[in-house]
Design a protein that fits this description.
This protein is an alpha/beta fold and about 700 residues long. Helices cover about 40% and strands about 15% of the residues. The chain has 26 helices and 23 strands. The strands form 5 sheets. A 9-stranded mixed sheet has the order 3-2-1-4-5-7-6-8-9, with helices on both faces. Strands 11, 12, 13, 14, 17 and 20 form a 6-stranded mixed sheet that branches. A 4-stranded antiparallel sheet has the order 10-21-18-19, covered by helices on one side.
């Protein structure tokens, strides 16, 4: 921004800022540098969540260097330097900061004083520039540190171009909603040992008698959080980000948009979800559609830049301009690990508003590409294959008639969940993984961690009270167990059958797919989906129901599409965080139902639907609890033997088929498979085995050859 502003001065003067080749001092050039000095003094830079002042110190250092350069040129051309010291000018005219914590404000002021201290000179008065206040709230009834930006900084908002020239910083990455897990982690850890959220709420209530002081602090903190959330949702200033479970960083991003001057710039360090998450889609769409977005530099915390943050967490440098700073293209870098990665020109991508619209037509959120080649392949897929659910179409935008369901929420519905001990005490008997007493029946409650691709028996779950972070521990099912069709997995909770049938009919499970919603683009696989037997399902495994006009076998084809490598490749270009949300799934290119009515391209004797669904049913119907699905699809016999080598081969055939159906050439198939961890490695425990990638390429070549014939 400084370089731009000084270049504008030089352009008005008809002069060059470059002093090389300039001979003797000249009044004309003295006038140039005098105006540059005035321009510097007009700059207003703020960190609205300044903390200890790290960003302000960096801004100060940059400004000091530029002031020194300008003053040096002034003196060379015969003009007097400013009467005030440069440090005093910067601290009074340029630097501003706000933080809600008084201690942080004191540390920030101290940092600036230490940086600018001079012998025999008094310290600058920072009380009007670095202040304690709640940047997001202006209602004292909501927060005691509420502040109004216009009142606190009249020198910024009272000028012709209202607002700050630069808004910088690393705002807090925390949810406004108060979490019991965080609040009681050290003060009352026994609360975290609760087996259900309902039990946890009871333990918190017990504190009112056992530890009234702690309970009072909890109630006060919860009340304060709820007031802040209500204010942010209703005040009208955060209409683009006050959605869902509001994260503080997103509100600060919208605050920056509202407080930056029309020709100013914003640079924030925030989670990458600002560009990819559903709750921030309106904000990011505003930046894109208004041509305000300048750049997004996405980092993975692999090198521990943030020591207390998970190494797979992704954050970004978000750059955008004020209302009068427009750009047709924005600059992107993804999966950087340190700032040096930004110096590699090959990693930079330019995307336009139309590019983003093509890739995410429903939400205008940002894709996440590892390389230009990945971007080219993904864009090509979008130009060939329609997305699953196109909200822009009046008719035909949902050909699979998809409906989603979160059957039971692990926290909100916890009062409905029952443990094996309770059922035993109440006289119920366990049959497989169902509890029954007379006509009363309790169904297993499936969690996402219990499933894998085409496999509903991947793991059982046991409860570990000592593991506060992850109380449900998986117990993997062995290959020997999976070969037993009577084998079932045991959950940690069960639910009354009546609660399930109130939501969905048992027969609907033959048109219902479950997928894992907690994932990552850096995992071995991103989309993992399966059929489930008649059961309850918690929200970690969202359910995708196909319409009544979609047959069971067509639903099998949709499952094959979801579990294919080519689908997964596109899917992982869309995930900036760890959640595979509906809005992401809806916008991934997915073959439409009518595709499967055609003859199979490599076997004209049967339809594509039969070729695909036969393989899916063999992968899925390997146990007695999936017989209803097998019977609905006409699979004979209804239980197919579970054979690990055959399963690997069937999945490789399906992956090869979908690469062909998506129009991916062989070289690009190899590239896509190379991006998946472990796909090119042979399993270490099987002598003479081949890698997943080699299996897929073998079948790809075979199917291609049959198409040629």
């Amino acid at each position: 921004l400084i370089e731009e502003r000084l270049a504008e001065v030089a352009k008005r003067k008809g002069l060059d800022l470059d002093e090389r080749g300039v001979g003797s001092p000249s009044p004309e050039r003295a006038g140039l540098w005098s105006e540059c000095l005035d321009t510097l003094r007009q700059l207003k830079i703020v960190d609205p969540a300044c903390g200890s002042g790290a960003f302000l110190i960096a801004a100060y250092d940059l400004l000091e260097d530029k002031y020194s350069e300008v003053v040096g040129h002034l003196q060379y051309h015969g003009s007097e330097p400013p009467a005030e010291a440069i440090c005093d000018i910067i601290l009074r005219d340029n630097i501003f900061g706000v933080d809600v914590t008084p201690e942080a404000v004191e540390i920030s002021q101290l940092s600036l004083w230490l940086r600018t201290a001079r012998r025999d000179k008094s310290l600058a008065d920072l009380s009007q520039n670095i202040i304690c206040g709640n940047s997001l709230v202006d209602d004292p009834q909501v927060h005691p540190a509420a502040m109004t930006w216009e009142d606190k900084f009249p020198q910024v908002f009272g000028r012709d171009e209202k607002g700050f020239d630069c808004v910088i910083g690393n705002p807090p990455w925390e949810r406004l909603n108060l979490k019991a897990r965080e609040f009681f982690a050290f003060s009352a850890p026994h609360v975290l040992e609760a087996m259900t959220a309902e039990e946890g709420r009871d333990l918190i209530s017990d504190l009112e008698a056992k530890n009234p002081e702690l309970h009072a602090r909890w109630v006060q903190a919860k009340d304060a959080a709820e007031k802040t959330i209500a204010f942010v949702r209703t005040c009208g200033r955060y209409g683009l980000t006050a959605q869902g479970d509001i994260n503080t960083y997103s509100a600060f991003a919208e605050l920056a948009l509202n407080t930056v001057a029309p020709h100013g710039r914003v640079g924030l360090l925030v989670p990458s979800g600002i560009a990819t998450d559903h709750t921030t889609k309106d904000f990011f769409a505003k930046l894109v559609n208004s041509h305000l977005l300048i750049g997004l530099y996405d980092f993975e915390n692999r090198k521990g830049i943030f020591q207390d943050v998970h190494r797979a967490f992704k954050f970004a440098v978000l750059l955008f301009g004020g209302s009068k700073r427009k750009r047709k293209t924005a600059d992107f870098v993804f999966f950087a690990h340190d700032m040096k990665d930004l110096e590699d020109k090959k990693r930079h991508l330019s995307l336009t508003r139309d590019d983003i619209k093509l890739l995410n037509p429903n939400t205008r959120t940002c894709p996440v590409f590892r390389s230009p080649k990945d971007a080219d392949l993904t864009i090509a897929v979008y130009r060939r294959i329609p997305i699953l659910l196109d909200e822009s179409r009046e008719e035909g935008g949902n050909p699979w008639e998809i409906k989603y369901m979160l059957m039971f929420h692990q926290s909100f519905d916890a009062k409905l969940f029952t443990h094996a001990k309770t059922l035993t005490e109440n006289g119920y008997k366990l049959h497989g993984n169902l509890w029954q007493k007379g006509k009363s029946k309790y169904l297993p409650l499936y969690e996402a961690k219990m499933i894998q691709a085409y496999e509903h028996r991947a793991a059982g779950v046991v409860f570990d009270r000592t593991n506060w972070a992850r109380q449900g521990q998986t117990v993997a099912t062995t290959p020997a167990q999976l070969q037993n069709p009577e084998c079932v997995v045991q959950p940690r909770w069960w639910i009354d059958e009546s609660n399930v049938t109130a939501l969905v009919e048992p027969k609907s499970f033959t048109r219902m797919l479950a997928f894992k919603n907690v994932t990552s683009p850096t995992n071995q696989r991103t989309m993992i989906a399966a059929f489930l037997p008649y059961s309850g399902v918690v929200h970690s495994a969202p359910l995708m129901l196909t319409g009544e006009n979609i047959s069971v076998r067509l639903t099998c084809c949709l499952l094959a599409n979801l579990n294919s490598f080519v689908y997964d490749f596109v899917c992982r270009q869309k995930i900036g965080g760890i959640n595979l949300s509906y809005f992401i799934v809806n916008q991934i290119p997915t073959l439409q139902p009518h595709t499967y009515a055609d003859r199979c391209p490599w076997d004209q004797r049967q339809s594509l639907e039969k070729w695909v669904s036969d393989r899916v049913l063999k992968l899925t119907c390997t146990s007695n609890d999936m017989i209803p699905l097998a019977e609905a699809a006409g699979l004979e016999p209804p239980v197919h033997p579970w054979k690990p080598a055959e399963r690997a081969d069937l999945m490789a055939q399906l992956d090869a088929a979908y690469f062909i159906l998506y129009g991916i050439e062989r070289d690009d198939v190899e590239h896509i498979l190379s991006t998946f961890t472990g796909a090119s490695e042979a399993p270490p425990d099987m002598f003479g085995s081949v890698s997943v990638a080699d299996k897929i390429l073998k079948h790809y070549d075979h199917l291609r050859s049959k198409m040629g014939a």
